[in-house]
Amino acid sequence: MSSMTVDELAARAGVTVRTIRFYSTRGLLPPPEIGPRRVGRYGPDHVSRLALIEELQSQGMTLAAIERYVQRLPEGLSAAELAIHRALVASWMPDTADEVTREQLERRCGRALADADVERLAAMSVLERTDDPGVFLVDPGLLHLGVQLLDVPFSLESITAARAVVVEHARGVARELSQLFRDEVWEPYRASGPGPDEVERMKSLSAHMQPVVVQALLTAFQRSLKAELRDAFPGERAPQLGPAAAAATDDGKDDADVSR
User: Fold this and answer.
1) Which of 162, 160, 159, 163 has its CA nearest to residue 151?
2) Domain range enclosing 173
3) Which of 78, 115, 125, 147 has its CA 20 to 30 A from that of 84?
4) Is residue 1 a part of any domain in this protein?
5) What is the pLDDT of residues 183-232, one digit of tens each?
6) Do 23 and 124 have their domain in common?
7) 21: pLDDT confidence band, cut at 50, 70 and 90?
């Protein structure tokens, strides 16, 4: 994605120029690069950061809380890493899908989409088709990551196969973790004869555990992937799946940095 003016960034992110300037004064957005004629130029990292702010607002966070969240983010995060943060935030939000037209979809993607691109996004579960061929249901938490993967030279068949592997194992992990929680936490608690208030608190606990579990799974997967790549290419520099994977699988980094 080429650099953008503030007007182009506002159109791309679906916010006003005034909002962008306000976020900048509050430190939520990094300053733009100054180009010819001292015109500020914005890039993909600004788009991803605006999307993250939008997701945090959707979660009900106040501006002050968002500021604290952004201040705790590691410095120098790429657009891909910010997209992972947004996906993590969206992962414990209620399932939502935005209904968009083809034109709106392309505007949010920041690029024209060929039919093959739409097929790839559908294969990655970023979007679903509707009865109207010009309208799609889009997962806002996956859109930015999906767009970045459009330029990765994977065939549609490879994407479909990879998704099947991820879904199969993710469901298996979720099933076993749910069973563990039910056997070790919920059943003993229920056997103690708690009152209605305590039951609600236990349900709230299980809901609040979800982002912690997601973070743990992401960290474990990324480190396992790094180890697999290292074993697959002994004596060589193992290939990375992108800057986000390289950064997040750094064994020296505090686990909390993955989703803070």
Assistant:
1) 159
2) 165-258
3) 115
4) no
5) 877 777 767 766 666 667 666 666 666 666 766 776 777 788 778 878 87
6) yes
7) very high
Residue 17 pLDDT > 90: yes
- Is 39 within the bounds of a domain? yes
Tokens standing for 34?
A: 């100054």
CATH number at residue 136: 1.10.1660
SS3 readout for the chain: CCCECHHHHHHHHCCCHHHHHHHHHCCCCCCCEECHHHCEEECHHHHHHHHHHHHHHHCCCCHHHHHHHHHCCCCCCCHHHHHHHHHHHHHCCCCCCEEEEHHHHHHHHCCCCCHHHHHHHHHCCCEEECCCCCEEEECHHHHHHHHHHCCCCCCHHHHHHHHHHHHHHHHHHHHHHHHHHHHHHHHHHHHCCCCHHHHHHHHHHHHHHHHHHHHHHHHHHHHHHHHHHHHHCCCCCCCCCCHHHHHHCCCCCCHHHHCC
In tens, the pLDDT along 117-172 reads 999 999 888 899 999 999 999 987 678 778 878 888 888 888 888 878 877 887 78
Q: Is the pTM of this model over 0.85?
A: no
Nearest in space to 96 (alpha carbons), one of 59, 64, 61, 44: 59
Q: Are 75 and 173 in a shared domain?
A: no
